[in-house]
Specification:
CATH topology of the largest domain: 2,3-Dihydroxybiphenyl 1,2-Dioxygenase, domain 1
Number of domains: 2
Number of strands: 8
Number of helices: 2
Structural class: alpha+beta
CATH architecture of the largest domain: Roll
Oligomer: single chain
Shape: globular
Strand content: 35-45%
Helix content: 10-25%
Largest sheet: 8 strands, mixed
Order of helices and strands: EHEEEEHEEE
Radius of gyration: 15 Å
CATH class of the largest domain: Alpha Beta
Length: 116
Amino acid sequence: MGKPVTHFEIGCRDSAKTSDFYAKLFDWQMKPMGPATMIETGGGGIGGHITSLGHEPHNYVTVYVEVDDLQGYLSKAGELGGKTIVPPVKLPGDQGGFAWLADPDGNVIGLWSPKA
């Protein structure tokens, strides 16, 4: 069975302005959580978050695929012609971790693991 897309992220320059836009446009519920604003879409889809990195890239949208081994999948991506963009990052409080990779054409996606 394939790995599921379990989360999405919207990058921006102004988190408050962007959160307000999407809340009003799609009736999404927003919950500030540290440097991110978590998005609850109301069921029938996957949740996500909005963040402002404070550096490039400012504007992006990416999806996260859930895997059991962040470094293992980054290594596999490298063998297949991709490259690591962000190495594994463990989230505080044992909340899992994430990484970013680029495919051979340069498309960036995230990897998510509930166990970092």
